[in-house]
Write a structure and sequence with these properties.
Blueprint: E1 2-5, E2 9-14, E3 19-25, H1 44-49, E4 59-60, E5 70-71, E6 77-86, E7 103-108, E8 114-115, H2 123-135
Parallel strand pairs: 4-5
Antiparallel strand pairs: 1-6, 2-3, 6-7, 6-8
Length: 136
């Protein structure tokens, strides 16, 4: 699995419109990392019979990350991609360092596009706190 930028834009959330708006040009993308499923490799039979979950994927905005997390820029749109890589038995569990040198098929689900954020703000609570502060 990897996660790639959807476009070259940065976004901001407009609370009054309840929508994401373009806020400028994207930051330079972080180096692309692959996440190898911890239970892989799978046989074709296993893939047909069980659900494959990516709930253990970890995301960060820290470009200096040394733990193998996928690095994203906050306030940018991303598309997760699933890659099925055909490996021969001699490859075993060796890590995939160059996807292009492998035999693979990529699956993209357009409904999984998301905007990465690092902090949430409850606009209603903030507005209440501001009005309470003004009334004092």
């Amino acid at each position: 699995m990897d996660i790639v930028p959807v476009d070259n834009k940065r976004y901001r959330y407009a609370y009054h419109r309840s929508s994401w708006l373009v806020a400028g040009k994207a930051d330079p993308p972080a180096p692309c990392r692959l996440y190898m499923h911890p239970d892989s490799p799978f046989t074709g039979e296993q893939l047909r019979k069980q659900v494959v979950s990516f709930e253990k994927v970890k995301l960060t905005n820290n470009e200096m990350d040394k733990h193998g997390h996928l690095v994203l820029n906050s306030m940018h749109k991303y598309q997760p991609r699933i890659h099925l890589v055909k490996r021969n038995e001699s490859a075993g569990n060796s890590p995939i360092t160059d996807l292009e040198s492998e035999e693979f098929k990529t699956f993209i689900f357009p409904e999984s596009v998301f905007t990465a954020v690092t902090a949430y703000q409850n606009q209603l609570q903030s507005a209440t706190l501001v009005s309470l502060h003004r009334n004092k």
